[in-house]
Amino acid sequence: MKQQTGVVRLSAAATMLLMLLLSQSISTVTMVAGVAINPRHCRGTVKHVHIAVGRDPTTEMTVSFTTKWAFPGVEAPIAGILVGRRKDQLGRFVREQELPLTYNTSLPFEHWGHYYAPYQHHITIGGLEPDTTYFYQVVLGDRGAGIEELEQKALTGKIDGNNLRHRPGNNGYAIENTTAEDQFLSEQQMNDEEEDFNRRHRMLAPPPYDGHEKPCPENKRIRTFKTAPETDQDMPVTFAIVGDLGQFEFTKNTVIHMKRHKKDYDAALLIGDIAYTENDERRWETFFDFMDDFTPFDQMPLMIATGNHDIEKQANRREVFRGYEHRFRMPRVRPPQLGLFDGPMGDLNMDAAPYPMPYEWGNAYYSFEYGSAYIIVISAYSNMDPDSTQYNWLSAELESVDRTRTPWLLISMHVPIYNTFDLHHHDLQIVAAREHVQPLLIEHKANMIFSGHIHAYQRTGNIIEDAVRHPHGPIHITIGAGGRACNAPFQHEIAEEWIEQRDATMYGYGKFQIHNRTDAEWVWIPVAPSDKRDYNFIKHNDTVHLPSLKEDSVWVKNQFHLANE
Hints:
This protein is α+β, with helices and mostly antiparallel strands. Helix content is 17%, strand content 27%. It has nine helices and 30 strands. The strands form nine sheets. A seven-stranded mixed β-sheet has the order 19-20-21-22-24-23-25, with no helix packed on it. Helix 4 (249-260) links the parallel strand 14 and strand 15 (267-270). Helix 7 packs parallel to helix 8. The chain is globular. The model is unreliable at 1-34, 163-193 and 199-203 (pLDDT under 50).
């Protein structure tokens, strides 16, 4: 150890020893103005497992997961999946079809370090049977040894743990690579700029989930999923619908309830605003730690839509939606086209996000059949104007739907076309959706339009343009109280004529249950009262206290069939 001009310099050997001692004695954490960002480190093993249906949900399921942190010089493991109809007979090995993905970016402040995302693996299991339960296990190997060796070991039961060779380190494993995750910042180290950043983000960014003291997912865990039933106009199916989820205290109530009742649902639609990273990409890791600990989405397909809080443009960079696109794999129409934001540098105002953003295909917009339903996911943050890529795709997609096969047409889009709350009425995305998308959905007699964005619940009647009631118009559901700040004020004390129910005092989600070609049921499932108020209120008028809504359900008649009777 050599000392010069008050600076202590360590030799390479001493530095490695210090890293080892730190890794054995303290947890991995970053303190930002008293907020811990503390992702769980699992030494390169499988974590953050979630599933989504493939292009044909009756025969395909995509399994997504993360492994090693992709720091410079770190090679991704090679991966495959063992699958079978019995837990003790995983006799089929599915090889990875593509290299794992990663990305890196800056963090909100330079001395927080540079962020390197973990390797994101997406493996699609094909050749499945409809309406069938399967067991599956993710297995890893050294990429240098090749996929044949991994397959041979997996099928002969010679996989030991995750089958990775680790360099000597903490407890015999390689020390997890450390950059921003191993920095320790106290409030005294925060400069004025950081304190201002924290003040501006505190209302939108409560502390992220901290599960670092909980055990990593079991390495040899065998999970299950069930494929979609055959497409049939009378096939009953049920979807869980939730928006604006995050990783907060009330998020737990929502997803734990969903997990306890997972047998009631075939798949879940998450309608945007997923992790609430507030441009700190490390919060994706804590969100998926939360997923590992509380949600059923390693067994129930999770189908996502873009939200404004999923844009994630760093103040000093122009990339957008990278976490959203890299970490999930929806049934793509085409590979993603992610451009660079061409507006002013700096933070975006998430309450008035720019429109449109340079994002086409990939996870932005897509569709899939499930039983008697045809689900179309629209990106409110991609261009929706006439003759845009998404508009032309959507128009052709709606024309192609065969309502004799899939009589129920469901739409997932983050922004509500209509809302009774005193928020977001002038968002450019909402204006574009109302002017350009709504006429297409009415023309093709969409049944339900599910949205989030407003952290509250509302249900309209059957309505067409200008919120005029019409029996053949779609029902609009806003289901944005999944976990984040349920506290939206009403615009008017007396609800608009087209509103059936509204509430901003309860967190929860919804269930849409299709019984046959003509009948379905919508049920709102409140799971926890808001910590803000136990009554609904009017903005700037706290003397008016309107009662909380405790339940809501409605029987839905298929508008397409009503129109053709």
